[in-house]
């Protein structure tokens, strides 16, 4: 598990933090000046990393 998270992209955590703060993917994307699909994609990558798949 440690190995999996050592390669974790810090930007994924920033996206996750913004989504949690706003409780809204679209608003998080606007706040971060990125598209909504980019936020969704980042969340998918984070879930995949966390699951170990």
Number of helices: 4
Relative helix content:
over 70%
Q: Please give the alpha-carbon distance between the first and last residues.
A: 11 Å
Element-by-element helix/strand order: HHHH
The number of strands is 0
Provide the structure class.
Answer: mainly alpha
Q: What's the shape?
A: elongated
What does the average pLDDT come to? 89
Indicate the low-confidence ranges by residue numbers.
Answer: none
Rg computed from alpha carbons, rounded to a whole number of angstroms: 11 Å
Largest sheet: none
Strand content: under 5%
Record keyword descriptors for this entry.
single chain; mainly alpha; 53 residues
SSE topology sketch:
Elements: H1 2-6, H2 10-22, H3 25-32, H4 36-51
Helix pairs in contact: 2-3, 2-4, 3-4
Walkthrough of the structure:
The longest helix is centred in the C-terminal third of the chain and has 16 residues, at 36-51. The mean pLDDT is 89. It is elongated, with a radius of gyration of 11 Å. The protein has helices at 2-6, 10-22, 25-32, 36-51. It has 53 residues and is mostly helical. The protein has 4 helices and no strands.
Task: Please outline what is shown here.
With 53 residues, the protein is an all-alpha fold. Helix content is 79%, strand content 0%.
